[in-house]
Automatic annotation (TrEMBL), chain A:
Annotated ranges, domain FAD-dependent oxidoreductase 2 FAD-binding: 55-460
Membrane disposition: Peripheral membrane protein
Species assigned in the record: Parafrankia soli
Protein keywords: Cell membrane, Electron transport, FAD, Flavoprotein, Membrane, Oxidoreductase, Transport
EC number from the UniProt entry: 1.3.5.1
InterPro entries: FAD-dep_OxRdtase_2_FAD-bd, FAD/NAD-bd_sf, Fum_R/Succ_DH_flav-like_C_sf, Fum_Rdtase/Succ_DH_flav-like_C, SdhA/FrdA/AprA, Succ_DH/Fum_Rdt_flav_su, Succ_DH/fumarate_Rdtase_cat_sf
Protein name: succinate dehydrogenase
Native organism taxonomy: Bacteria, Bacillati, Actinomycetota, Actinomycetes, Frankiales
Length: 654, 265
């Protein structure tokens, strides 16, 4: 059974090395004009012919929603999917803090170049310069687009848009809609999509999950999906397939991602030939509400914007159990302000997260289990008054109070890092096309733009840049420049993929073991959090790599999935996603093991400076790692990264 | 039998006192099934659990006992996606003000409580299974006019249209609707006026929404009627149940906008 293959168990080596990736489709020459030149070189599809071309879009988050709406508006026939009951509920809805754009409305020295520079540097020099520059260029158009759609961004009394600064940068370029920016942007995209659905340009399939990819003659030609209400399994065919299925953070079980977020679409595509890049680049967000118990199903983020006004501290004394108001000023350690005086509480996420972990590992953590640090608003309330604090952060404070039962206007919040975002994803070229021709990947599902670490408020920007502005012309180029033969539903490949999907669900139901699907997910997540979380070591990764195949074998022997496949069966949905996480988790650890350097969100304990900062190894690792699936040890393909504009330098935030 | 990963942690990290509950949950296999309330005892519930985590714990047990777990919709568990929502002791989203089901915590209940859990009940929201209902009618109302038409890439520079802060704030307040459907479930007539009014108010307040102001409200109201939602008799139950505090004044505004649109036809 393929599900129990142990990747890389042969010969003690976990991977092999294949050819480098040389062609990324990015034009060379001056970076400022690369995107214009790429668009100009792209072939166009005559508007009258677009109706005859079908594009499948899987996902309705910012990336998918924007893409579906725009492609349909341009005249393509779009078939679109999401597993939620409505496209409006995609996980993007939960983003709180904001979206970056190089508008320079504050005249504070921002520019496209600075956003580009900050993103490359923030990503710890592990992203492709061409892509990042394009992202920064497009950022300004996104704000225009969203404002025109009626997205109610925060405004000043002048009636103009307000902005704020966000972790890791010193300009105020983050646009926001109270603490609900993702919601407002997604509703904007959803409304545009709804308009196209109503007009017949988009055929929408909510509560329908893609379970496999159909590749015919080396090109992506469709997907196999399951209607989650009736259980019916159906193949859909198209000229191109777009995956906009989000990140894989839930491989950790506990994360700030929505419960349904999963890696099935990307992992199944990987198994069909799409390279998976940099899976070990995961982002741990410093400001989440600490867990309260074993039953905990997910973690909740407290927007990082809180770090603009809240001060982070722990008691100086180890094991101090006094309540925070009993701890005098002199006995508190505002450790970020102390260690990083220039950035203070606003250091990038990975640094803030690790610093919190060290304080807690050192016995200075607060709250249950000592797994928390304080985020204190007392000074902010003194400085600007409770009303102003309420206006800025009211909904976040309310959320905190609902979850913990504590009032942050009176008692400092307790926060702890949690998995939040995944920079890794399916490998794509400059056109956002994966290594399978005809399959494009956008939003968090791809690996582009953020390198080894994403700056706050840049995921929303990337999702919308991909969906509204980059993907549509590149889809047109693909369709116009490719001679696609016709495919039919009786194609043997279609039948065989449908058969495989059906067979796998059947096997899951037959096991009838004695452990619940969630019990496996939780165990996998704890293992990966311990060994491949905020700090990673060779020994720990080897331990995880020894354990994951055992766990997977146990899963396929002992999982218990009640009910049958011809009905709404949420246990079956879960089990099927967990089966993929159990395979994917292994690739994540292999990638982390192979990258014997620290960079961004990937901190290898063996590779640090004398004062404990991440130490990159540009000699050996200045490349993106794109993995090929083989069923056994995966093959590593390196995409060498070149830095012509932003000069390689160790990050330094002190 | 392992209910959870083999780790010897206590259920609540701080050992907060737990409560014992009796749940009576609506079980219905499919749309055609008649459905009935089924009783489950659930001991040792931590007050720090969310309502959905409490259902997770019950479901883990049901699976191991060979029973079908209770189906319910949820995703973000942060009160923002609008997926969750059940009627708890007769109240949509339960007893806490302005709180979605996923954000409701068990500290709102007492030891020995009997808790009734039912799906949204409304003509336009047919039950799919157990606590899961079909709310696609909401999507169709939005599709009928709940948008501002902008061809991608054609938007003017964002600062070319300043919006006075009070107007932007009022639009925002209405835009916070999460489309959960509690307003409909709470309404004795199964009306979707609050939901529709929130969207009409959000978009019609903004200068960007002005060109389509009249067609928007007409088309959305027509769609709402076509979907079989009931009429509004001003009972105000909707706004009480609404987790985002969409006010009744939005319905007043919808009525004015509609009147204005039809008289100008
Ligand atoms: C709590 C939180 C707060 C955040 N705050 C910010 C912020 O302030 N600023 C910022 O820039 N970023 C933020 N992020 C990150 C950002 O929200 C995400 O990276 C981004 O929204 C992802 O968008 P997406 O369109 O790629 O995917 P998603 O929004 O995750 O959408 C995925 C879509 O794919 C569908 N899907 C997935 N798998 C399948 C399948 N197999 N079949 C069918 N459909 C499928 C889903 O139904 C969904 O529609 C935050 C993230 C979290 C978790
Ligand atoms: S108006 Fe309130 S209750 Fe109704 S759908 Fe919107 S958020 Fe839910
Ligand atoms: S699960 Fe998203 S609002 Fe409750």
């Amino acid at each position: 059974m393929p599900e129990t293959t142990s990747l890389g168990s042969g010969g003690g080596s976990y991977w092999t090395v294949g050819d480098d990736i040389v062609d990324t489709a990015a034009p060379d020459g001056p970076i400022e004009t690369r995107w214009d030149r790429r668009k100009f070189a792209a072939k166009l599809v005559n508007p009258a012919n677009r109706r005859r071309h079908t594009v499948i879009v899987v996902g309705t988050g910012l990336a998918g929603g924007a893409a579906g709406a725009t492609l349909a508006e341009q005249g393509y026939k779009v078939i679109q999917f999401c597993f939620q009951d409505s496209p409006r509920r995609a996980h993007s809805i939960a983003a709180q803090g904001g979206i970056n754009a190089a508008k320079n409305y504050r005249n504070d020295g921002d520019s496209v170049y600075r956003l580009f520079y900050d993103t490359v540097k923030g990503g710890d020099f592990r992203a492709r310069e061409s892509n990042v520059y394009r992202l920064a260029q497009i950022s300004t158009q996104i704000i225009d687009q969203c404002v025109a759609q009626g997205v109610p961004f925060a405004r000043e009394y002048s009636g103009l848009l307000d902005t704020r600064s966000f972790g890791g940068v010193q300009v105020q370029r983050t646009f926001y809609a109270r603490g609900q920016t993702g919601q407002q942007l997604l509703i904007g995209a959803y409304q545009a999509l709804s308009r196209q659905i109503d007009a017949g340009g988009v055929e929408i399939h909510p509560r329908t999950e893609m379970l496999d990819l159909i590749v015919i003659d080396g090109r992506a030609r469709g997907i196999v999906a399951r209607d989650l209400v009736t259980g019916k399994i159906t193949p859909y065919l198209a000229d191109a397939v777009v995956l906009a299925t989000g990140g894989y953070g839930n491989v950790f079980f506990l994360s700030t991602n929505a419960k349904g977020s999963n890696t099935t679409a990307t992992w199944r595509a990987h198994r069909r030939g799409a390279l998976f890049a940099n899976p070990c680049y995961t982002q741990i967000h410093p400001t989440c509400i600490p867990r309260s118990g074993e039953y905990q199903g997910k973690l909740t983020l407290m927007s990082e914007s809180l770090r603009n006004d809240g001060r982070i501290w722990v008691p100086k004394q180890k094991g101090d159990t006094r309540s925070p108001d009993q701890i005098p000023e002199a006995e508190r350690d505002y450790y970020l302000e102390r260690i990083y005086p220039a950035f203070g509480n606003l250091v990038p996420r990975d640094i803030a997260s690790r610093a919190a972990k060290y304080q807690c590992d050192d016995g200075r953590g607060v709250g249950p289990g000592g797994l928390g640090v304080y985020l204190d608003f007392a000074d902010a309330i003194k400085r600007m008054g409770e009303d102003k604090v309420r206006e800025k952060y009211g909904n976040l404070f309310e959320m905190y109070e609902r979850i913990t039962g504590e009032d942050p206007y009176k008692v400092p919040m307790r926060i702890y890092p949690a998995v939040h975002y995944t920079m890794g994803g399916l490998w794509v070229d400059y056109d956002l096309q994966s290594s399978i021709p005809g399959m494009f990947v956008i939003g968090e599902a791809n690996f582009s733009d953020h390198g080894a670490n994403r700056l706050g408020a840049s995921a929303l920007m990337q999702g919308l840049a991909d969906g509204y502005f980059v993907l549509p012309p590149m889809i047109g180029n693909y369709i116009a420049s490719t001679k696609l033969g016709s495919v039919s539903l009786d194609d043997p490949t279609v039948t065989s993929v449908v058969g495989e999907v059906t067979g796998r669900l059947g096997r899951l139901l037959e096991i009838n073991g004695d452990r619940t699907p969630d019990s496996f997910h939780r165990e996998l997540g704890e293992l990966i959090w311990d060994e491949c979380g905020m700090g990673r070591t060779e020994a720990g990764l080897r331990k995880a790599l020894a354990r994951i195949p055992e766990l997977r074998e146990e899963f396929w022997r002992r999982v218990k999935v009640p009910g049958d496949s011809g009905e709404l069966n949420q246990s079956l949905e879960k089990a099927n996603r967990i089966a993929d996480f159990l395979e994917f988790g292994e690739l994540l650890c292999i990638d982390a093991l192979h990258r014997a350097e620290s960079c961004g969100g990937h901190f290898r304990e063996e590779s640090q400076t004398p004062d404990g900062e991440a130490l990159r190894d540009d000699e050996r690792f200045a490349y993106a790692a794109a993995w090929e699936y083989t069923g056994g040890a995966p093959v590593l393909h390196r995409e060498p990264l070149q830095f012509d504009y932003v000069h390689l330098a160790q990050r330094n935030y002190s | 039998m392992d209910v959870r990963a083999p780790r010897d942690e206590p259920t609540a990290l701080e050992g907060a006192p737990t409560v014992n509950l009796t749940l009576r949950i609506w079980r219905q296999r499919g749309p055609e099934d008649r459905g009935a309330m089924v009783t489950y005892d659930l001991p040792d519930v931590s007050p720090d659990m969310s309502f959905l985590e409490m259902l997770d714990v019950l479901n883990e047990r049901l699976i191991l006992e060979g029973e079908d777990p209770v189906a319910f919709d949820h995703d973000c568990r942060e009160g923002i996606c609008g997926a969750c929502g059940v009627v708890i002791n007769g109240q949509a989203h339960g007893p806490r003000d302005r709180t979605t089901t996923c954000q409701l915590h068990m500290r709102s209940f007492n030891d020995g409580d009997v808790i009734d859990v039912e799906p949204w009940r409304a003509g336009a929201f047919p039950v799919v299974r157990d606590l899961v209902v079909d709310r696609s009618s909401f999507d169709r109302i939005i599709g009928a006019g709940g948008y501002i038409s902008v061809v991608t890439g054609s938007a003017p520079e964002a600062h070319s249209t300043p919006v006075p802060k009070p107007v932007a704030d009022a639009a925002f307040d209405n835009a916070t609707c999460i489309g959960c459907g509690a307003c409909v479930a709470a309404c004795p007539n199964g009306s979707s006026m609050l939901f529709t009014s929130a969207k009409v108010t959000h978009l019609n307040l903004l200068p960007q929404g002005a060109p389509e102001r009249e067609t928007r409200v007409r088309n959305m109201v027509e769609a709402m009627d076509a979907e079989g939602f009931g009429g509004c008799t001003n009972t105000g139950e909707c706004t009480v149940a609404c987790p985002k505090g969409i006010p009744l004044t939005s319905i007043g505004n919808l009525n004015r906008e509609y009147l204005r649109a039809v008289t100008r036809r």
